[in-house]
Amino acid sequence: MSYTNQLLETRSSETNTERALRRTEMVELNVILQHCLEILLGFLMPYGLIISSYVCILRRIRKTRFRRRIRSEKLILVIVITFGLTWLPFHMMNMVEIAGTFLPEDSHAKARLQKIWLSFRGFSSIITFISSCINPVLYTFAGKSYIKHEGLGFMARLFEGSRIESMRNNRQNQKNQDQEKKEVVNHLRDRV
């Protein structure tokens, strides 16, 4: 008997209940995969990237003599926390749905998780979409304030300030190296 015939016999002997159960298992597997990817690619990786980027910006701000440094640090903190608070509920609902797929169908815990998911999924989605509106507002108000107090070139001065300081550091390092070379040459002359 060929493999195709065996497969056809197996499928024809399968009951509708077994097929429905297999489809349900595939759907649950797809839900788990989709939500895990959403959590990883839609929250954890972007949040990590945001945090690391703003840490680099904070370091640069702290190295410059930027007059409004503390306000900049507060703005960065607000942006990072806002992202986390607006996206976390959505991904928590994904985790609730994932947890529900691991429980038996007739489980009281599964019914409770489904009730939580149905109750809060819409609200968490609204909060997530509000995130897209909050960031431009934060940047606009912060930008207007900086432009009003610092002028249009405040960002250029911010980055130029760090460049100037790095040039100063390079000059100081060069002077130190030149001084060390002179001391070595003088020491060798004294020995001769």
How many structural domains does the protein architecture include? Answer: 2
**CATH level 4 superfamily of the largest domain:** Rhodopsin 7-helix transmembrane proteins
Shape: elongated
Secondary structure tally: strands: 0
Please identify the structural class as seen in this structure: mainly alpha
Radius of gyration: 30 Å
Q: What average pLDDT do the residues reach?
A: 78
**Tally of individual helices:** 5
| Biggest pleated sheet | none
Strand content is under 5%
Per the CATH scheme, the topology name of the largest domain is: Rhopdopsin 7-helix transmembrane proteins
**Unreliable sequence segments:** none
GO biological process, one term: phospholipase C-activating G protein-coupled receptor signaling pathway
Transmembrane segments: 32-55, 75-96, 116-139
GO molecular function, one term: icosanoid receptor activity
Organism: Onychostoma macrolepis
Description:
The protein is mostly helical. 90% of the residues lie in helices and 0% in strands. The protein has 5 helices and no strands. Helix 2 runs antiparallel to helix 3 and helix 3 (69-101) runs antiparallel to helix 4. It is elongated. Residues 177-192 have a biased composition (Basic and acidic residues). GO terms for molecular function: complement receptor activity; icosanoid receptor activity. Belongs to the chemokine-like receptor (CMKLR) family. InterPro entries: Formyl_rcpt-rel, GPCR_Rhodpsn, GPCR_Rhodpsn_7TM.
